[in-house]
Write a structure and sequence with these properties.
The protein is of the alpha+beta class and about 210 residues long. Helices cover about 65% and strands about 15% of the residues. The strands form 2 sheets. A 3-stranded antiparallel β-sheet has the order 1-2-5. A two-stranded antiparallel ribbon has the order 3-4. Strand 3 and strand 4 form a beta hairpin. Helix 1 crosses helix 2. The longest helix has about 50 residues.
Length: about 210
């Protein structure tokens, strides 16, 4: 049976040949894409498709018998399910009518989540968000304390600068004090010279 014959076989059940062809194409495309991505496609009762890695190895050319090195590669693999194996081996008989080769999915498994399930999921997400916020709060407070401590540290370091300026003022005051005293000592000398000159003038007048 080829693909066209497979489409013809399920055309009546799918409501037309075009619908059957689209269904077969969609199923095969989904399987191929999943296996290429490294996922395992498993259909209960039918089998599973998966990607298998083959390491590098040596093989022999059947025509020449020459030893050839084969590179590492990936290959698809299909493993038949137990139900499929039982039907093929004959341990189980196929029913005359009906699709029993593959187990049908349980009711509700193919539909979306119900409203109650959605509410439960939303409640779980809210709880996890609150727990994460509680855990993150102490970390934020600690970070804020560290930031304030770093900002306050330069202010404390600036205090010695004030002390140095006060010490500098004291030293300058000490240096200026002797200079003032020296100037005060020099001042009387000028007065004595002035007195001597006046005395000479009065003596000259008397003569």
């Amino acid at each position: 049976m080829n693909k066209a014959q497979l489409v013809e076989a399920i055309a009546d059940k799918m409501g037309g040949r075009q619908q059957a062809a689209d269904a077969v194409d969609a199923v095969l495309d989904a399987i191929v894409r999943a296996v290429v991505a490294g996922d395992r496609v498993s259909v209960t009762g039918f089998g599973s498709f998966e990607k298998v890695e083959r390491p590098a190895r040596y093989a022999r050319n059947p025509q020449t018998g020459e030893r050839v090195r084969v590179k590492k590669t990936s290959v698809p693999r299909f493993r038949a399910g137990q139900g499929f194996k039982d039907l093929v081996s004959g341990s189980k008989k196929l029913p005359k009518g009906g699709e029993v080769a593959v187990k049908k999915a349980p009711k509700g498994s193919l539909t979306g989540p119900t409203a109650t399930a959605a509410k439960k999921a939303a409640a779980k997400k809210a709880v996890t968000k609150k727990a994460a916020a509680k855990k993150a709060a102490p970390a934020k407070k600690a970070a804020a304390k560290k930031a304030t401590a770093k900002k306050a540290a330069p202010a404390k370091k600036a205090a010695p600068a004030k002390k140095t300026t006060a010490a500098a003022k004291k030293t300058t005051a000490k240096k200026t004090a002797p200079a003032k005293k020296a100037a005060a000592k020099k001042a009387p000398a000028k007065k004595t010279t002035a007195r001597k000159t006046t005395a000479k003038k009065t003596a000259a007048r008397k003569r």
